[in-house]
Amino acid sequence: MGELSDFHLKDWIKKGEPIPGKSDGQGLTFTLSSNGTASWVLRYRFAGKAREMTLGRYPDMTLSKTREIAAVKRVEVQQLVDVAAVKQQKKAEAKQVNNVSQLAELWLDNAIRYKHKYPEVTERIFERDILPVLGKKDASKVTTGEVTHLLAKINVSGRPTVSNNALRYLKAMFSYGEVLGLVDRNPADRIKIKHAGAKEKARVHALTEAEITKLFKAIRDEGRGFGRDNELAVKLLLVLACRKMELFAAEWDKFDLAINKNWLIPASKTKSGEARELSLPTVVIDWLKELQVRACGSEYVFPARRKSKRNHVSPDTTCHALRKLNHDLEHFTIHDLRRTSRCLMADLSVPFYVAEKILGHKLPGSSAIYDRGGSMKQQRAALEKLAGLIIQLDEGDKVSNVVMV
Length: 405
Prior knowledge:
The protein has 405 residues and is α+β, with helices and mostly antiparallel strands. The chain is 50% helix and 10% strand. It is elongated and about 80 Å long.
């Protein structure tokens, strides 16, 4: 805990007397100029010389938020990064920034593209929802009302999760611009989820066996219009119960199709941050070998189909194909296929701990420590059962006569 409090800060601002520096500890300092501007400054030593970096203004940057940022900067200094010099360099780069599109590009390039597992997820929301509305506007003149209007527009389209994500990204982007001195205030900072009207509902939808059969029939009827890559993607998602980006960003060197017949999903691609291994059913091996031919030497199982910032295909490609498909089913998402797989495993009497291991979930409570079940042999048997059921549903067979082994 630092030495300052909001009570102190507000009292000093009210008095209006200039403050050259009040320490919160470890170099974090509060200053108040003669014209009443309250700022946060981080003071440190680098290469034996005293250095300082302005973090932002109070109360736009709260005390707690500033402490978090200061802690991150101190770690960077310990790693021999002159944070003040880096900021000056970024400010020089930012001189070309006039509108929101340019600020977004700067933020994405410095804060997202080289630090997140799947930067394309963030890029997609900017490209589709944020920039068409705010892109040409002067970044320093965007109002809170304009941000709220944008979020409301997304909500009307029935995508509360996207609205929530857009709000998070806008807050972070404008905060970044604030640190660089490109904007005086963050127009999204005080907007809450309740103000934006974005209330997410937990999804519980899973396709029934009859619906899966109907989906596969619609895919066959659509033929080349749906695309073989999309068809195999849907089948792989159902059989392997993996997350969409684990599959669409999968690289061939993580697959062993000949000897061990498994797929190693690296920690950098999983939500939990822990690597996991999946056994591959026989039919999945066949599908992957077909995709290997279709990949034409690409390092990715699903290479990008046109020139883009990424080398692998976007999940939007399959999402779009499913939306266009005339399947006459209740709306479902790609993630609903993963939920469907979990339900099917339960119907097939796959043990709980084996199914959870396949999905990459951590077991609850002490089970995570003492129950190390879900061996590769058990996983392989479970996934072979699931694959067998998916094949039957694809062929349109009645599933009531499935015999458990």
